[in-house]
Sequence to fold (511 residues):
Amino acid sequence: MNLKINRETLSVSENIYDGVQEQNTELDYILPDYYPDIFKLIKCGISPSVTSYSINGDTLDYDITADVRILYWAENDSSLHCISQRLNYSKSVNIGTVSEPDVTIVPKSDHINCRVVNKRRIDMRGAVSIKIKVTGESKQEAVCDISGMNVQVRKMPVEYMSQKITCEKTLTLNDEAELASSKPAVSDIIRTETELSDTESKIIAGKLVVKGEAAIKLLYTSGESAETMSFTIPYSQIADMEGLDENFRFNVRVTAVYCDITPSADSNGENKKLKYEIKLHIKCCAYKTIPLSLVSDIYSTSYPCEYASAKLWIDQPPETINEHIQNKAVLETDENSIAGVYDVWCSAKNINITPDDENKKIKISGMLCYQAMIKNENNIPSVIEKDQAFEYEFDSEGITENSTAEIYISGISCSYTLNDSDSISVKADINIKGELYTTSNFNAVTDVSIDDTVKITRDGDYAIKLYYGVKDEQVWNIAKKYSTSVNAIMEENSLESESLSENGMLLIPIV
Fold:
């Protein structure tokens, strides 16, 4: 009698590289002739982003930009001016040989120091850290079914992610927008903000069509005052994902790489036009799952049986995270009283993610950086800011001890109330998005050996044996002990479950 073993080769994600690199940022800047002299520095900041990456052999190469903005007061007037510079860097890291790599690169600003060397020269020193995670694909073999030689097989059902298709696209949007007729002309652009709407996606003939909108908000100066403006840009992109069909689940993540806005003159010579270039990164992941049975235990009712088992890791489809929270802060100034508020905004930094598999929760903590541009009683613009810690947790039933989460702040919208002459109450509505990745482990049979030259011998010539079963005892274990079958025990004792519901005597038929 032949033993037939059906095996399945399973793919599983493997953590290849998880580390942090640092990049120093330095800028020795001399003001162009058309910039007024520096009277006082107001604020400086760095916004880093990854513009591209590629894997060449065992090396990950990537490019990052650091957008530097420095605000200062002019010497002879109270207007606010902005120095904007883009610093470009190329980095690399050795990650080894990777099969089907999936790369995540997240840069953040660590610190920035800025000093005035003289009225026309600024020296800036800062640092950016880049968190890099690379996963690959490894293969593992499992036994799915065994037949012949009177074997009894115990199986466990699993949901297996049989296919994963990934596509990354870069989309550049450039055009021109005009200020409303009621808006004054642009002197300096102080800050820009890109908020991306939820995408609309659909599958068409092996392609994923992604549509969405990029809402652009900017704060600019006009003479000695400041103004805000916003406009929306629709976009659409087709991602080629060969083999994609309606049986796949998918998620799409769109992030803004950079947003360049440059004022230009209209027919009247006023800076009332805005030339923009926005670069978006689109990452599409599609997953297809199939039900699968893995053999977890085996024995033969006729022959001695030996088997090997191992812990197998099975990737589960990611769980989408979409949470909305609110946070409040009070911004105060110790200078002159607040005569008006031009704009209020908020950004997040130092985000920490802690999956709690015991309580089935995900905890998010970090720092919210509130900022407001105001004018004082002398109509001089300035920036007040406050850093405030936040913490939020939410339920996630699919979490396990092996779960990891990739979470990002997709957008923060702020509203405010001017309390009195020296404080502002700000409410931030925060959108949290991401994915929860879970890898389940199962103890499964990987190899079997049955000696058909030796028959199992019993301690007597009998067809039925009495056995006292204990509540919650598994019929499988009883059947394996007496080299009989689970079905024979259940039929003989009219059992409805493979777990005993109460203590009592059982009749064990010998197969």
Notes: Helices lie at 475-481, 486-493. The chain has four domains: 9-137, 149-316+440-457, 319-437, 459-509. The chain is about 5% helix and 70% strand. The chain has a mean pLDDT of 89.
